[in-house]
Design goal:
Largest sheet: 7 strands, mixed
Structural class: alpha/beta
Strand content: 15-25%
Helix content: 25-40%
Number of strands: 21
Number of domains: 2
CATH superfamily of the largest domain: Ribonuclease Z/Hydroxyacylglutathione hydrolase-like
Distance between the termini: 55 Å
CATH topology of the largest domain: Metallo-beta-lactamase, Chain A
Number of helices: 12
CATH class of the largest domain: Alpha Beta
Shape: globular
Length: 438
C-alpha cells in the first residue's frame, strides 16, 4: 500500500504507512515567538482529526513546531491514545509537559534506530537544540531535516541505513536578517538557505523534495520588513523542479508518495495569494512594561543566575567581551543599561546613547524566560542602532538560556557540541562582516 502524506501546515504533516499514522510538528493556529510570526495559510486539520493518530514527533521546542496551545486543544480522550516521540534531553520539559496532558511518551536516543509499530523505524539525530528524523517504512524512507542548520549532511547521509526517498527541508530564513531597508543582508540570508538545500540534495540525492517549515510571515510592525527578502515557494519550486521531483503541499492536500502525476501548481498559486493578502503588519497585542517592573524581574533573574552558575569566572571579561549593552525601549521611550553581572544597571538613557532598540515586553520576556533572547532573534522585533549589538546582547543571556535547558556554568562547556557550535557561529559572524565590507 502506498504511503500518504496529509499536509497540516508550515512544518506539520501526517504520514500514513502500513496502517500507522505519524504526525510531525503540528502547529495549527495562533501566533509564535511572542506573537511575531503568523501562518501564511489557514489550516484545515481539525483537532478531532488526531483521533486514530499513533504518534506525534516533535523536532524541537520552538513554538512553530511544539505548540502547547495546540496540544491542549486535542480532546483528552484522544491524547491518551497517542505516543509522543521526542529526543532524549536533560531538562525533560517537553516530555513532562506531554505526560501531564495525558500523552504517552517515548524518548529517542541520538542517532539510534527505534522500532515503532508495523515495521516502521525512526532515527532521531540531535543538532544543538534541534533534531532531524529519518523514518523507514515499508513504503519508503523520509528524512525530515527541519530547522537543522549546523549538521554536516554528508556525514549524516553516511550513517543512514538506506537511501533517502523523500527529503523535507526548510526553504527560507527564520530569524532577524537586518534592519528595515537592509535588503542586501536579507538577500544573503535567503541565498544561504537555498545553498543549504543544494548541499542537502547533494548529500542525500532524494527522489522527492518537499520544501516546508517556511510558510510563515513576520506579522508585526517591528519585523514586517523581513518579509521583503524571504524566499517564496514559487521561486523555490522553479529552482529545483527540473533536477528533482519537487512537491508543494497546501493545508489539506494529500499526496500519495511517488505519484509522478501530482501537480503542485494549485498549491503554489494558493500560497502566493495568501502571501499577497498579508499586505501590512498586525497591531501589537502586548502591553508596555514599566521600568520598575523590569528592575524587579532583573533582580529575580540575577538571583537565579547567581545561584546556578560560577559567574565570577567570567568577570574579567565584563569590560570587554561582556561589557554592558544599552537598550532603548521604544514603547516606554527610555533606555536601560544591562549586564549579566548586575542586571539593569541604569535607566533613563536617551535613544542616541543606546545600541539596540526593542520593546519593553521583549526585555521582560528575556529576563523571565531562558528562551527569551532566542525568541527575540527569531521574531526579529528589534533594530540594531549599532552594528553587532544583538550579538553582544546574546552573550549576556546565553548562560541563562542554558540554565533553562538544565546546564550550568562552567559545566555546560562540556556539553557535546557546545563549543563547536559557538565557534562556528563566531566564524560565521566574522565571515559575514568581511563579506559585507567587500
Amino acid at each position: 500500500m502506498t504511503d500518504q502524506i496529509r499536509w497540516i501546515n508550515h512544518a506539520g504533516y501526517e504520514l500514513t504507512s502500513n496502517g500507522v499514522r505519524i504526525v510531525h510538528d503540528p502547529w495549527i493556529e495562533g501566533f509564535a515567538f511572542q506573537d511575531g510570526w503568523s501562518l501564511v495559510a489557514q489550516s484545515r486539520y481539525a483537532y478531532e482529526d488526531f483521533a486514530g493518530v499513533d504518534y506525534i514527533w516533535f523536532s524541537h521546542e520552538h513554538p512553530d513546531h511544539f505548540a502547547p496551545g495546540v496540544l491542549r486543544k486535542i480532546p483528552e480522550n484522544i491524547r491518551a491514545t497517542i505516543t509522543v516521540l521526542y529526543r532524549l534531553t536533560r531538562d525533560k520539559r517537553v516530555v513532562s509537559f506531554c505526560r501531564k496532558l495525558g500523552f504517552k511518551v517515548q524518548e529517542l536516543p541520538d542517532r539510534q534506530p527505534v522500532r515503532l509499530k508495523n515495521d516502521i523505524t525512526i532515527t532521531c539525530g540531535f543538532d544543538g537544540d534541534d533534531s532531524w528524523s529519518f523514518l523507514v517504512t515499508p513504503g519508503g524512507t523520509y528524512f525530515n531535516a527541519n530547522d537543522c542548520v549546523g549538521a554536516r549532511w554528508r556525514e549524516v547521509a553516511r550513517i543512514l541505513p538506506r537511501p533517502v526517498d523523500v527529503l523535507l527541508t526548510q526553504f527560507s530564513y527564520a530569524n532577524w536578517t537586518g534592519n528595515p531597508g537592509d535588503t542586501a543582508s536579507m538577500g544573503r540570508q535567503a541565498a544561504k538557505k537555498l545553498q543549504q538545500m543544494e548541499d542537502q540534495l547533494a548529500a542525500f540525492a532524494p527522489r522527492t523534495l518537499i520544501p516546508f517549515a517556511s510558510y510563515v510571515w513576520f506579522c508585526r510592525s517591528e519585523n514586517f520588513h523581513l518579509n521583503e527578502g524571504a524566499n517564496r515557494i514559487d521561486a523555490v519550486y522553479g529552482r529545483f523542479t527540473d533536477r528533482v521531483r519537487t512537491v508543494v503541499l497546501y493545508p489539506g492536500d494529500t499526496y500519495s508518495v511517488g505519484d509522478a502525476s501530482f501537480d503542485s501548481g494549485q498549491a503554489i498559486r494558493r500560497y502566493m495569494a495568501d502571501w499577497s493578502s498579508h499586505a501590512g503588519p498586525l497591531p501589537a497585542t502586548e502591553q508596555p512594561v514599566p521600568v520598575e517592573a523590569l528592575q524587579q524581574l532583573s533582580k529575580k533573574q540575577q538571583d537565579a543566575l547567581g545561584s546556578q552558575n560560577a559567574l565570577w569566572l567570567l568577570r574579567p571579561l565584563s569590560r570587554s567581551y561582556l561589557r554592558p549593552v544599552k537598550l532603548f525601549l521604544a514603547d516606554i521611550d527610555t533606555g536601560v543599561e544591562y549586564s549579566m553581572f548586575g542586571g539593569i544597571l541604569r535607566a533613563g538613557l536617551a535613544r542616541e546613547d543606546c545600541e539596540l532598540q526593542v520593546q519593553s515586553f521583549s526585555l521582560a520576556n528575556m529576563l523571565t524566560n531562558g528562551y527569551g533572547y532566542s525568541t527575540l532573534y527569531i521574531n526579529g522585533r528589534f533594530v540594531e542602532l549599532v552594528p553587532g549589538a544583538f550579538a553582544r546582547l546574546s552573550r549576556h543571556f546565553a548562560i541563562f538560556g542554558q540554565n533553562a535547558a538544565g546546564y550550568r556554568f562552567p559545566q555546560l562547556l562540556l556539553r557535546p557540541g557546545y563549543l563547536h557550535s559557538h565557534m562556528a557561529r563566531l566564524l560565521s559572524g566574522i565571515a559575514g562582516k568581511i563579506e559585507s565590507r567587500s
